Amino acid sequence: MKITQDIDTLINRFKKKDKVALAKLISLIENEPDKAHEVFKHFEGISHDSYIIGITGSPGVGKSTLTGKISKKLLEEGKSVGIICVDPTSPFSGGAFLGDRVRMTDISLHPNVFLRSLASRGYKGGISRAVFDISLLYEAYGMDVIIIETVGVGQAEFDIYNLAYTVVVVLVPGYGDAIQMQKAGIIEIGDMYNINKKDLGGEDIAVQIEMMLDDTTFQSGWRPPVSMTDAISGEGVEELIQNMWDHKEHLELSESINEKKKNRFSYKIKELISSKIEKLISESFINETKIKEIVDYAVDEGKFKIYRTIHKKFEDVNFEITKK
Ligand SMILES: Nc1nc2c(ncn2[C@@H]2O[C@H](COP(=O)(O)OP(=O)(O)O)[C@@H](O)[C@H]2O)c(=O)[nH]1
Ligand SMILES: [Mg+2]
User: What global pTM score does this model have?
Assistant: First the structure.
């Protein structure tokens, strides 16, 4: 009862664009996924869509710096921006948070921007759930643009391609260009490629990417553009933003934006179903009494019997799956 009242108060403040309420709702949803429906039911009348952009690339290529610069430009155009930084490689919980804040000091105090960093692993229901739910909250808040910054592609804990409408792959000049491209799963994943740190060179990698793109046919009719930026000075950032809008327009004109939206939801639904199943199974089988029985048996009979014990205990369990 108390919690419902708290949620109601928070929602009222949230609807008045109170950033503290937004922060509290994010924490609530992160920590208590089962309460998410209590929150989202208040937004059922809202039809606002944010445009969702994914920025991905290896650690250190300048994604956060770039995100800061892109956001700054968008803010200058009067747009609001919700940022989610996912850096599971960050060894300290909160470490990425501080780092990203420092890189985004220019903008983090602006009333129309909000930044959330997810630095550590081990979110209840996983990082992709947290990212999806935070982006849903940003949409309810009325953000014009959502930027999801994430390390790597494919190997990440979730696939940015299923969550964003436009994916920017960021690369840097210098070492291991070929490896960078392989890692980026380059041709399949990016809607555009951006070589950052152009103050350090990078013409050669741009040419390599252009050549790879020339050898590829794009059934969608969209040929990913290649841009170069210096995220520190901001040089080239406008062109990159223009490429994003061009891609958005392409998706809208070809009506594939709806496919993207559907894809986002089917990804989410599959994830919700598997987490429900996981919960059901663990609740039915992993209860403390059962564990105690197994422990007692294993300890009495010897630790090397633990595998055989578990095997035995579950031997006569029959799974019955009912289709509904
Ligand atoms: N020379 C140069 N350094 C950059 C540029 N963009 C970012 N950096 C630096 O690269 C480092 C990593 O940047 P960061 O944005 O944290 O990268 P992320 O790990 O991809 O988010 C920081 O020291 C930045 O100051 C750039 O365009 N040129
Ligand atoms: Mg970063």
Answer: 0.85
